[in-house]
């Protein structure tokens, strides 16, 4: 606090020129306020601000000056990203000369650049905290109501988007033009930074204001007339994933009140369209007017609102389903995807592919977070640590690779298998990595050092799945020899062999550690004394419970199912449904 105080006082006095002494005297002689944390700093801020307003103005001019201060200073302290004076003026809808005066009077408190394009910045965050706190900013002429400041910027964002967004903003004309083929200078020229800012943050300002979106007609109008233009602009500036997050926030706010189901339906439909087509819109922005509309359901509200934007060379749209399915997004590798996992908190999706890469995706927005490169052949298996810090991948190149999920760096390459690695798992504490391979072995690795701890032998065919118990004491492996083997993690002893009669593609422990959950059923461990026994499995045509036939599967559903848990069967392929059981 002392350094901030001294630096601000020096700037304030220096800018007074020949009146520097008078300014210092004013600061020193100001009557002391009641002692409390921050008082000296607050007193100094108020003294500097008093000098920023010309008290000799007539009442009308004074009111306009105070209004400008609130618009300009209030915007600067609540902006989500710094703007240049020109961009701020454009966003606020004021001439640059008009905002120059309040900015110029605040040089002691703000870094106001003279060079074109440089950004306005607070000299210290404490000035923001001071202006937004009515207890600290005792002079009401200077107090900034945060909600009102966000409301102003929300309105400004809607206004500038309404006036600047249009179809084909960069005059590309070719609907298949890729974002990577458009120069940044062209994008910056057609999407000025003030518009860029509005596109990214209008929902953020709405969220922090006291505006009820149900009662603001501007939101419905924006969705009905500018929504696709907004998606195009976000794609051009590389921020389409922000759009997904913003629409989700808007949908959440609408659900809290549900006063206007009509607006809620539009927002839901907008979210579905964006999630379903974000991949191609992000790659080729103009596809938002062709592919995204043509391949959306016939009942889509956004499709009906924007069909006039469909290019004339599309003379007839295909007949599609009436409404949106449960399918939200498609996340694409350029080649076959062989492995997928989701982080325990549901925020990340990790996938491995025949393109030799591991990709990390934002599960909420669908945005590709990073591409992990290093394998020289197919990636067959992926796993992620419960806290999301480590990612492990197994490949046909016979290696296991450990990646830092935060920095995207390759931490270690684990070598020892003589065949393709087909399965990987990480212990809950992140200390052990287990891998299964076409060399018929299971190997246990130290996740920190990369050292090979143990080699577990016993399978007579390749290992297709591995898992570690919640307490880290047991390791299980599923093999193409139709068995599940249970190993002691400390001694490497083989405790049990379960004859499951099928090759398991998925294998994990239940939360209690007493059952094995697989894609062919749920099996109780032989040594378990758990009373909630759920030995549910399936043959080709029957679901069985404790070894007895329970439910016959119609031929249309055979060979197309997998277990999501011990009570839910998911049917995939030609027929996509779920069957839930309530077992005795």
From TrEMBL:
Superkingdom, natural source: Eukaryota
PROSITE patterns with a match to the protein in the record: BULB_LECTIN, WD_REPEATS_2, WD_REPEATS_REGION
Record's keyword terms, sorted: Coiled coil, Repeat, WD repeat
Entry-linked Pfam families: WD40
Cellular component annotations (GO), alphabetically ordered: nucleus; transferase complex
PANTHER family, alphabetized: WD REPEAT DOMAIN 5B, WD40 REPEAT PROTEIN
Family to which the UniProt record says this protein belongs: Belongs to the WD repeat MDV1/CAF4 family.
Name by which UniProt lists this protein: Mitochondrial division protein 1
Native source species: Podospora australis
């Amino acid at each position: 606090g002392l350094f901030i105080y001294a630096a601000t006082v020096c700037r304030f006095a220096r800018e007074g020129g020949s009146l520097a002494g008078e300014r210092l005297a004013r600061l020193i002689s100001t009557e002391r306020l009641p002692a409390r944390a921050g008082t000296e700093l607050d007193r100094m801020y108020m003294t500097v601000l008093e000098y920023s307003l010309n008290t000799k103005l007539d009442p009308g001019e004074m009111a306009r000056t105070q209004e400008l201060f609130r618009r300009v200073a209030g915007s600067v302290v609540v902006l989500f990203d710094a703007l240049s004076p020109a961009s701020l003026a454009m966003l606020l809808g004021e001439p640059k000369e008009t905002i120059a005066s309040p900015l110029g009077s605040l040089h002691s408190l703000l870094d106001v650049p003279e060079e074109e394009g440089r950004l306005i910045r607070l000299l210290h965050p404490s000035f923001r905290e001071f202006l937004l706190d009515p207890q600290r900013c005792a002079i009401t002429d200077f107090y900034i109501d945060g909600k009102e400041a966000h409301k102003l910027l929300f309105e400004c964002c809607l206004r500038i988007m309404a006036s600047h967004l249009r179809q084909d903003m960069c005059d590309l004309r070719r609907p298949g033009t890729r974002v990577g083929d458009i120069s940044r200078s062209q994008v910056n020229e057609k999407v000025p930074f003030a518009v860029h800012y509005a596109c990214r943050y209008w929902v953020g300002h709405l969220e922090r204001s006291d505006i009820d979106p149900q009662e603001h007609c501007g939101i419905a109008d924006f969705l009905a007339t500018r929504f696709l233009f907004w998606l195009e602009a976000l794609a051009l500036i590389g921020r389409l994933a922000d759009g997904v997050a913003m629409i989700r926030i808007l949908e959440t706010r609408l659900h809290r009140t549900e006063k206007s189901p009509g607006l809620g339906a539009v927002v839901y439909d907008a979210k579905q369209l964006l999630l379903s087509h974000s991949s191609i819109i992000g790659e080729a922005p103009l596809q938002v007017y062709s592919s995204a509309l043509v391949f959306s359901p016939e009942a889509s509200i956004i499709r009906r609102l924007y069909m006039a934007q469909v290019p004339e060379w599309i003379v007839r749209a295909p007949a599609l389903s009436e409404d949106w399915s449960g399918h939200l997004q498609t996340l694409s590798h350029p080649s076959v995807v062989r492995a997928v996992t989701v982080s325990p908190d549901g925020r990340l999706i990790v996938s491995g592919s025949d393109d030799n890469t591991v990709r990390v995706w934002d599960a909420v927005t669908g945005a590709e977070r990073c591409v992990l490169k290093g394998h020289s052949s197919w990636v067959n298996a992926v796993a992620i640590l419960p806290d999301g810090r480590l990612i492990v991948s197994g490949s046909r190149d016979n290696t296991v690779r450990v990646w830092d999920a935060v920095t995207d760096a390759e931490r270690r390459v684990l070598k020892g298998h003589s065949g393709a690695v087909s399965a990987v798992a990480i212990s809950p504490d992140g200390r052990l990595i287990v891998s299964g391979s076409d060399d018929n072995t299971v190997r246990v690795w130290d996740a920190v050092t990369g050292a090979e701890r143990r080699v577990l032998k016993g399978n007579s065919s390749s290992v297709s799945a591995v898992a570690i118990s919640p307490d880290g004491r047991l390791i299980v492996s599923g093999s193409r020899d139709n068995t599940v083997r249970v190993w002691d993690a400390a001694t490497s002893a083989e405790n049990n062999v379960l004859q499951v009669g099928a090759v398991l593609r998925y294998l994990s422990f239940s939360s209690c550690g007493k059952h094995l959950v697989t894609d062919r059923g749920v099996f109780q461990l032989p040594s378990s004394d758990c009373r909630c026994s759920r030995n549910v499995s399936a043959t080709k045509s029957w679901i069985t419970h404790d070894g007895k036939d329970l439910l016959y599967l119609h031929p249309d559903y055979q060979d197309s199912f997998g277990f999501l848990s011990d009570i839910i069967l998911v049917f995939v392929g030609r027929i996509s449904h779920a069957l839930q059981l309530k077992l005795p």
